[in-house]
Amino acid sequence: MAHGASSYEPKAVPLSGAIVAVIIAALAGFIVGKVFAGPAKRNPGGGGDSGPIVVKIDRAKAGKLPTEGAPPVKGPDSAKVKVVIFSDFMCGFCGQMAPAFEGLARKFGDRVQIVYRVFPLQMHKGADLSAEAALAANEQGKFWEYHDILFQHMTSQSRSDLESYAQQLGLDMNAFREALDTHKFKPAVDTSVALGKSINVGGTPTVVINDSMVMNFGPGALAGMVQRALDGKPLVDRMPSSGAQGGGERQAAGPQRPREAPPLPAESVDVKVDPWNPSRGPANAKIQLVLFCEYLCPFCKKVQPTLDVLQKYYGNDLRVVFRNWIVHEPATILSKAVLAAGLQGKFEELHKLFFDNQGEIRVCYESQDECRAQIDRFAGMVPGLDINRLHADMEGAEVQSRLDADKAAGQAAGAQGTPSPFVNGRRAPGAVPPTFFGKWIDQILGRSTPTIPASEDPQQQGQQQGCGQ
Asked: Which of 108, 158, 168, 418 could form a disulfide with 112 if both were Cys (CB 3.0 to 4.6 A apart)?
């Protein structure tokens, strides 16, 4: 068994206030959620998992995004470039993107249209009502002002909070309350969610520039990609360094200032571990690290080498437990394959092959047939794995029940996005350097001297984002 938990919060006034929120969130360490969790695959321009990933989407579907259901927009319909964001008002990384979108409006003016698509995530209780409230404010011409306030109060969005924010903006409260009472804008929310799912949006924020969906980049890279779209160029012709935190340009090599690990939350939760969960290390280890992940999340891939470092230094004091947490729906079949391999004692082999070859399995976003072909190809590389039995087990009740149990365990623990690690029940940020985990583990073990040296941290790793918050 294991134990863990955490949260997020910002300030009030226009979008510039969201910058304060980002700083607060980073210091607090709640860097777990989603980084632009749209479909991800290899970028034809080269690169891989370390830079922006661009996926072309069907033009007819892309054409509906700025217009169907009359979403809130900034900029004219005639704009050459349309930038659509699928966003959730309780998502920390959506708040982080807000200043970047405000910057687009200032920088490009009428050449760019910004479209806001509400996409409340089921994991965020009440996010659907917040989305309806924002659209009710839009009806009275105050969407963007209301949008700013919601992002400045991500943890305070009860019905009374929503009404209070409407009063601050001087909205017609009778009309606003009636809209919420009757769920007047629920059909518009449903339309927006359906449009997102039609192009495989799996989390927030997801960004679409004209007919290209982009993931795995920082807010600073957004304006550069929009400029390239205006210039008629591909959004990316070479990959920036990991995280694109420096505006999308390649970072200079060399030593960087070490970053401090944020504190673990004091409270812990009972994170359920089932006897069949794949794990490394003894069941009675002093530290139980339960990791909720999926095979299409680039940040889940980033954390795998960190697990190796932790096991190297903590040995039998550490147990790592793997549970599936699906953010991108096409990843479901991959989790089923690995769970089925586990029934034959081959979890580790297929697990490693999928992460080592994540660029290849991104085809799962586009075609289930090609996805299954890739699964078979990698399964064929595992000595002793019975492929026919694998196929049967993938469709069987046992694998489905295990996947359902992983989902239930994640929901009960409060997993938000991937990777979601829990260190003795305390929810930690996801894809962060080994020394961050080392600090937390040493704290729990009562060690005053760092166990993991700074030399074990990959250069420039810092605090990384994740998928699905």
From this structure: 108
- Measured in degrees and rounded to the nearest 5, phi and psi for residue 293 equal -145, 170
Q: How many domains does the chain have?
A: 2
Largest CA distance in the chain: 69
Structural domain including 315 reads 279-456
Do 327 and 202 have their domain in common? no
Shared domain for 50 and 163, answered yes or no, is yes
Task: State the Cα–Cα distance between residues 181 and 427, nearest whole angstrom.
Answer: 35
Residue 313 and residue 177 share a domain: no
Q: Are residues 335 and 416 in the same domain?
A: yes
Residues 67 and 135 in one domain: yes
* Cα–Cα distances in angstroms (integers) from residue 3 to residues 252, 286, 365, 442, in the given order: 40, 12, 34, 16
CA angle at 468 for the pair 428 and 292, rounded to the nearest 5° = 50
Does one domain contain both 60 and 203? yes
Residue 348 forms part of a structural domain: yes
Q: Is the distance from CB of 362 to CB of 324 less than 8 angstroms? A: no
Cis peptide before 205 (omega within 30 of 0): yes
Which contacts qualify for 450-454: CB closer than 8 Å, 24 or more apart?
A: 451/313, 451/314, 452/309, 452/310, 452/313, 454/258
Whole-model pTM above 0.70? no
Tokens 């632009």 belong to residue: 36
Q: Quick one: how far is CA 340 from the chain centroid?
A: 26
Count CB-CB contacts under 10 A for residue 186.
Answer: 16
Q: Is 325 part of any domain?
A: yes
Distance between CA 302 and CA 298 in Å, rounded? 6
Q: Is residue 243 included in any domain, yes or no?
A: no
Tokens linked to 313: 């230094």
CATH number for position 97: 3.40.30.10
Alpha helices (H) in 153-236, listed in sequence order = 159-168, 173-181, 186-198, 222-230
